């Protein structure tokens, strides 16, 4: 084992693509019918409509049909909006950073909290956990990751800490989802459970997940602070060499203040756009590009230098941006082979014969498995809750418990599954290789899965309604 080396990120993902490809030959093809649900106003699965269909395995190669190797291109086509979003955000942030405002401003903040800088971690985790639990903050965190990393480095930590306090904070809140309209709201509507019922129970989950997250990131941060070589991304930190010299900070000018004003206006527009106008990737990218352009103009950067900064920023994250498209190929292959619904149907049958507490736990682990294939929270709710809700009645589990099994199974593992476009996006922005993130985040995932299992047992025993 000493000589074992974790394969390259692209190798890991392509191995999974190959497994999915083989699955289209070994797993029977099957489909559910999709119907419009009048309560949630979403297209959902008809739980009684499953039927096996003619096997349609993905071909290794074909002159006439999509095949294994074209799945990568089709994956990139399907994820093109995310890929371009990553390039634009990376380039725009490089434009903003080129003004010197980030170094000057964050450096001064770091200097003020230098002795108590560790408190930044639970504060940031709480802020983003609140966002995850109330507005379903997910894609939105991508634009905050570079700022989190700059702050973490200024305090003597690394990119993992900067990413973790934001991404895992949001994930903790998203998993608990005490007021998340995109997961809990949709799932409860489909399961015919009163909207946002079980609020106190979910609030307790929120607190527990936030404590686990804060403790986990702080523990790692303290080790890195004491010994930088402990960093999972020590090689990245050496290349970046961007820790600020807090004893010799650049002068904070009026131009820098105006750049921060541009950022504030940009983030306010993003929040309003998401809440009121259903903005998504295209709109977010356009705002971030505007922030980059206006920051450069106000910061006194020449147009040519601004363009050069944009190109350098986009170039530096090409590796991670393309990973999103490669990972999307996994879903492309499974959808073409029509095996996703078969997997869902088979897992549901396995649950139906179990006692209530065990059935609740198995629902949870089934949702964890399905999250790999259906990483969209609302998409997974629309696909699985029409099956899990009546199944809960059958095995003596409350529908509220079934909703909790879904939301925990969906939320926790979003921070590790390679099919998650959000995960791959913020890792691309942070320039953290997936295999290194996987190594670091796995204990956090296992702790939260364990805590989730305890909550589910409690929910089942008290017949949470």
UniProtKB/TrEMBL annotation:
Membrane-spanning ranges: 12-32, 78-96, 117-135, 141-160, 167-187, 199-222, 257-274, 280-301, 313-331, 343-366, 387-406, 412-429, 441-462
Keyword terms, alphabetized: Cell membrane, Membrane, Transmembrane, Transmembrane helix
Annotated GO CC locations: plasma membrane
InterPro entries: C4_dicarb_anaerob_car-like (IPR018385), DASS-Related_Transporters (IPR051679)
Membrane topology, from the record: Multi-pass membrane protein
Entry's localization field: Cell membrane
The keyword Transmembrane helix is assigned to this record: yes
Pfam families in alphabetical order: DcuC
Coiled-coil stretches: none
Protein name per the record: Uncharacterized membrane protein YfcC, ion transporter superfamily
Biological source species: Anaerobranca californiensis DSM 14826
């Amino acid at each position: 084992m000493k000589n074992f080396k974790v394969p390259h990120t692209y190798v890991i993902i392509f191995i999974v693509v190959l497994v999915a490809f083989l699955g289209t030959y070994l797993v029977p093809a099957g489909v559910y019918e999709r119907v419009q649900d009048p309560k949630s106003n979403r297209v959902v699965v008809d739980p009684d409509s499953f039927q096996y269909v003619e096997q349609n395995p993905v071909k290794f190669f074909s002159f006439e049909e999509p095949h294994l190797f074209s799945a990568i291109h089709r994956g990139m086509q399907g994820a093109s909006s995310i890929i371009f979003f990553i390039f634009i955000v990376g380039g725009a942030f490089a434009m903003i950073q080129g003004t010197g405002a980030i170094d000057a401003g964050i450096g001064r903040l770091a200097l003020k909290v230098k002795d108590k800088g560790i408190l930044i971690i639970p504060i940031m985790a709480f802020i983003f956990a609140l966002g995850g639990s109330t507005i379903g903050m997910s894609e939105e965190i991508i634009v905050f990751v570079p700022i989190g990393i700059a702050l973490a480095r200024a305090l003597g930590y690394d990119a993992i800490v900067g990413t973790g306090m934001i991404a895992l904070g949001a994930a903790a809140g998203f998993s608990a989802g005490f007021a998340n309209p995109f997961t809990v709201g949709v799932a409860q509507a489909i399961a015919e459970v009163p909207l946002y019922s079980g609020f106190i129970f979910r609030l307790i989950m929120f607190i527990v997940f936030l404590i686990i997250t804060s403790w986990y990131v702080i523990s790692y941060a303290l080790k890195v602070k004491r010994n930088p070589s402990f960093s999972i991304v020590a090689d990245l930190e050496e290349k970046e060499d961007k820790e600020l010299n807090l004893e010799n900070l650049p002068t904070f000018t009026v131009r820098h203040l105006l750049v921060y004003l541009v950022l504030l206006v940009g983030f306010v527009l993003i929040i309003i756009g998401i809440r009121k106008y259903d903005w998504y990737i295209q709109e977010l990218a356009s705002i971030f590009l505007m922030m980059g352009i206006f920051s450069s103009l106000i910061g006194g950067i020449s147009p040519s230098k601004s363009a050069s900064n944009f190109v350098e920023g986009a170039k530096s994250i090409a590796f991670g941006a393309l990973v999103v498209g490669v990972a999307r190929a996994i879903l492309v292959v499974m959808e073409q082979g029509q095996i996703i619904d078969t997997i869902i149907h088979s897992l549901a049958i396995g649950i139906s014969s179990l006692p209530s507490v065990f059935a609740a736990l198995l629902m949870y682990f089934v949702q964890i498995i399905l999250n790999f294939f259906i990483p969209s929270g609302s998409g997974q709710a629309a696909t699985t809750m029409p099956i899990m809700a009546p199944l809960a009645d059958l095995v003596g589990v409350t529908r509220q418990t079934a909703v909790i099994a879904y939301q925990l199974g969906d939320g926790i593992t979003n921070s590790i599954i390679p099919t998650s476009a959000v995960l791959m996006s913020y890792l691309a922005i942070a320039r953290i290789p997936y295999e290194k993130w996987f190594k670091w985040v796995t204990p956090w995932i296992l702790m939260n899965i364990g805590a989730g299992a305890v909550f589910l047992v409690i929910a089942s025993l008290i017949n949470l309604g």
